[in-house]
Prior knowledge:
- By secondary structure, this protein is α/β, with parallel strands linked by helices.
- 33% of the residues lie in helices and 18% in strands.
- An 11-stranded mixed beta sheet has the order 1-8-2-3-7-4-6-5-9-10-11, with helices on both faces. A 4-stranded parallel beta sheet has the order 12-15-13-14, with helices on both faces.
Amino acid sequence: MQTNILTIDAVSLSLAKGIILNGGAVAFPTETVYGLGANAFDEGAVKNIFAIKGRPADNPLIVHVHKDYDISSLVSFVPDYAKKLAAKFLPGPLTLVYKSCGKVAKSVSCGLDTLAIRIPSHSGAQDFLKYVDIPVAAPSANISKHVSPVSAEHVYADLNGKIQLVLDGGKCTGGIESTVLDCTGEVPAVLRSGLITREMIEECVGVCNEYKLRKGEVARSPGMKYKHYSPNCKTMLFAFDKADKAVEEYKRQTSNGVKTFILCDGATAKLVGVENILNLGDSENEIASNLYAKLREGEDKAQLIIAISPQKQDGVMVGVINRLEKACKQ
């Protein structure tokens, strides 16, 4: 199968719609990462996504819709706090999990009675979703467990020959996946941290819990259970207060002939003062935006990436640290 990267225009959107309606998969941009989309109503098309990625069958997908899509046909109830969150943050990097009406393919939610819905703000994603005008189930457009793609070229590197089309919308600015919020209870609960922080949610609707996955439980959201976001080289992770230990390890590995890079934010880069640095930048949003691109850069340059967590532990950094822990999970 030949994989084509095309800019988003009338011709590529028409091609994408044909692929989607015929049970195929199309990679498309969002403001966070590139997604691998298929018709959420088509069981075979959804299962094909799992096969393309090599994704575990108990790792649910998120359904993407355009901003004018009526989700009442997909979910049984939308609580008032979810309406407030949608009014403030959508379209944007926030996924809301509702009780499902059971209209989409069962594989989307891995047999659960819930459905995760997202309305991306990326203009190219909106054009694509409006053009196909059906719910599109989409995980990240990469091989399972690998670093999430933030450019069309990243998608091509992972999925060349596996899909027909990558819609090129440029580099994703958000960088880490959407915040996923369980909206099936009396108060919302964070399932996966992202750019919409718990503090932002609490400011909007008051109380917001954080959900902890119990042993043996099927996850309600992607990113909760398995190793994710991992580069194709060895990795190590040190907390910020262990930065001196990270530098010691860097020097030890380098002296042993191992091509080693330290991945960290700009302030930490100045603190550690080593030669081989993958600099994530300075602001919270810059660090999040650069994380996956720098992990992919690192796997091309390094035999070992030593990551140092940011000193800041709250806000957007909760999501960044979560991704670093998953990426470096042994």
